[in-house]
Amino acid sequence: MINKSWDEFLNNEFKQKYFVELSSFLKQQYQNEIIYPQKTDVFNAFLYTDLDKVKVVILGQDPYHQPNQAMGLAFSVNKNVALPASLKNIYKEISNQLHVKMSDNGCLIKWARQGVLLLNTVLTVKKDCPNSHKDKGWEIFTDHVIEYLDKQKQPMVFMLWGNNAKSKMNLLKNKSHLVLTAAHPSPLSAYHGFFGNNHFVLANQYLTKNGLEKIDWRN
Prior knowledge:
Blueprint: H1 7-14, H2 17-32, E1 35-36, H3 44-48, E2 56-60, H4 85-98, H5 109-113, E3 116-120, E4 125-126, H6 138-150, E5 157-161, H7 163-166, E6 178-182, H8 199-209
Parallel strand pairs: 2-3, 2-5, 5-6
Antiparallel strand pairs: 1-4
């Protein structure tokens, strides 16, 4: 059991043929390669954010591929780990939008516990090899997650960052949800459509409008 609120969904996914094949691939990978995050952290996004508490979904690409970074929440690192470049850019954008000072703490569990589901389109990666677990089955899983969330009654904001995340846009049919898209916050693309996206302000305005407590984006 990862989180009781997600159990029905996850147990159903784990039994499906694609996931059995994905699990077999991952078992071999963890035995023979250096894979991030560690096995016990892969589903942390679901552990820290209850299904019925989801307010915002931030969708990225795949986990950090350098040592001691990936910890199961998209864009997050554990405390006392240097901020990766993508997270620095996220913090810079928050600071610019909300006029707050961000610390050097890269752990985003505080966001997750407020209802921010920090999800990547692919949940594992081989050391030093971004996108190495692409097209192995994770995209089917995260498609199903997005479709499941889209059917929930509570209002949600979906932030799709980067092309991998934007590819999920066609899965979002519920007109009551707010869908925001931007470039990925990595240094390669942040200046071409991430900076200035105003997502954090727009998300909080939407939550307030729908009678929900806004997210405290300070870290």
